[in-house]
Design brief:
The structure is a single chain. This protein is α/β, with parallel strands linked by helices. The protein has a domain of 121 residues. The protein contains 16 helices and 13 strands. The strands form 4 sheets. It has a 5-stranded parallel sheet with strand order 9-8-7-10-11, sandwiched between helices. The longest helix has 21 residues. It is globular, with a radius of gyration of 22 Å. The two termini are 37 Å apart.
Length: 454
């Protein structure tokens, strides 16, 4: 196993030596496209916010640059070849920032967050930005406070973020939505949903910041890319905080995610690695709030749906008529391109974990009004548990039966994905309850579904 070092550089004149140790492989990532314009979508994001009269702080820009380093390492260093156990990699980041002392104070916290999030071993170091890049915020933006937006919310193109958007708009707020444009299907869903919201709330001045960040597939020489993207929420959250610092006021970044997925309790004892994501786990989000305090950023992250299931989110949506009309444009599937293997257009597979929870939620919240196209009819045939189409269903059946036999296990199982030491006793009881109710929704979906090893 090799330790990879990702070294960010600000322009051709940035020649500060970054020594590497034995067994380390260094990769340079250039962050300046031309003159002083930042690359990898960061410059575009700054320009889009400036059009909205929002000017992020230097620390906010640092945070997005750090997130770019994390995203590059996470997506361009393959686990299969660059780890001893085909999972945990060793990655060191060397990040140019505006305030080295302030960022160095966050190092233990950041490494703990990222180790928890991705299951890798991260090491993070900071150095000063190169000469000429000490300040990136336009002088005209200093001290500006623009009150057009009175809410910030992540907008992924998924069903939960759609419900979150409708709910905050129905409250009379004018939010700024934050999107990270990933692959084509995700981007298309985000665009379609945003246009649908704009049509319905045509007199409202809400808007969207859409960040497109990608890196060449050969960024790290002779190393394949990684598809698990366990670190994607670090970039997503960083983009939201980056925008929030442009308000020059205190802010709350809404992270809409149902409680069952936020906890993501393993369905069976063997569910590890990519099947146990922690992107909105309470422990991880609490560490983000610690990070903002340490950096002096007057904001916080909040999941307003931590105590409800996805089905309850659907049922309680503040405008169910609008929700029902936009549901077909939302995207929940983990791999919507799988349909192409069968010669079909990109669509929900219907059998991955997010698809099953989505189907259960829409059954719970809308009855038979789910107009989503699914590749798999769950009830057409007996599903083979040795194939992808039956594996997630069988895992849910195992978890459902385990909890049916011993309901008291819920209060123990919710601790499996990670610590809940930040949560009060009352909140832990509520988390156990949302776990049980969430599994109950899936149980109703799967009541007549047959599975067997092929």
């Amino acid at each position: 196993m090799r330790r990879h070092v990702i070294v960010g550089r600000f322009g051709a004149s940035d020649r500060i030596a970054v020594p590497t140790g034995q067994g380390e492989v260094s990769t340079r990532v250039e962050f300046v496209a031309a003159k002083h314009r930042l690359d990898h979508g960061i410059g575009d994001a700054l320009e889009e916010l400036a059009k909205l009269q929002l000017f992020p702080s230097e620390i906010g820009i640092d945070l997005l640059v750090l997130a770019a380093h994390v995203h590059a390492a996470d997506t361009r260093i393959a686990r299969a070849t660059e780890s001893q156990d085909t999972w945990a990699r060793e990655m060191r980041l060397v990040v140019p920032v505006s305030d080295v002392a302030k960022w160095t104070a966050t190092t233990p916290l950041l490494e703990r967050m990222l180790n928890f999030l991705t299951g890798d071993r991260w090491m993070i170091g900071f150095r000063a930005r190169a000469a000429g890049f000490e300040r990136l915020v336009p002088a005209k933006g200093l001290g500006v406070t623009f009150a057009q937006f009175d809410a910030l919310s992540l907008f992924s193109g998924g069903l939960d973020s759609l419900i979150g958007a409708i709910d905050v708009l129905e409250l009379g707020k004018n939010p700024l939505f934050i999107s990270h444009a990933g692959e084509g299907a995700t981007s298309a869903s985000q665009n379609a949903l945003f246009k649908g919201l704009k049509r319905h709330y045509s007199q409202r001045p809400f808007d969207r910041l859409r960040i497109w960040m990608n890196f060449p597939t050969d960024l790290v020489r002779n190393v394949g890319i990684e598809h698990t993207t366990r670190g994607r929420s670090f970039l997503f959250f960083a983009a939201g905080v980056f925008a929030g610092t442009g308000t020059n006021a205190g802010f709350t970044l809404r992270v809409p995610e149902n409680g069952l997925i936020a906890l993501n309790v393993p369905l069976d004892p063997l569910r590890l690695g990519a099947l146990s994501t922690r992107t909105t786990h309470p422990f991880y989000m609490a560490r983000w709030n610690d990070l903002l305090i340490t950096l002096g950023i007057p904001g916080r992250l909040e999941n307003p749906y931590w105590s409800v299931t996805k089905g309850e989110m659907v049922a309680n949506c503040a405008n169910k008529t609008l929700l029902a009309s936009l549901i077909p444009d939302s995207l929940s599937c983990a791999s919507p391109a799988k349909a192409r293997w069968r010669g079909r257009a990109t669509e929900h597979c219907g059998y991955c974990l997010p698809c099953l929870i989505r189907r259960a939620a829409l059954k719970k919240g809308l009855g038979s009004a789910d107009r989503t196209g699914y590749t798999l009819d769950l009830n057409a045939n007996t599903l083979d548990t040795l194939q992808a189409e039956g594996q997630q269903v069988r895992a849910f059946q195992f978890a459902i039966e385990r909890l049916r036999q011993k309901p008291q296990l819920a209060s123990l199982l919710i601790h499996k994905p990670g610590p809940l030491s930040d949560e009060s006793a009352a909140r832990q009881v509520a988390l156990a309850d949302v776990y049980k109710r969430g599994l109950g929704e899936v149980a109703a979906l799967l009541a007549s579904v047959r599975t067997a090893p092929g």
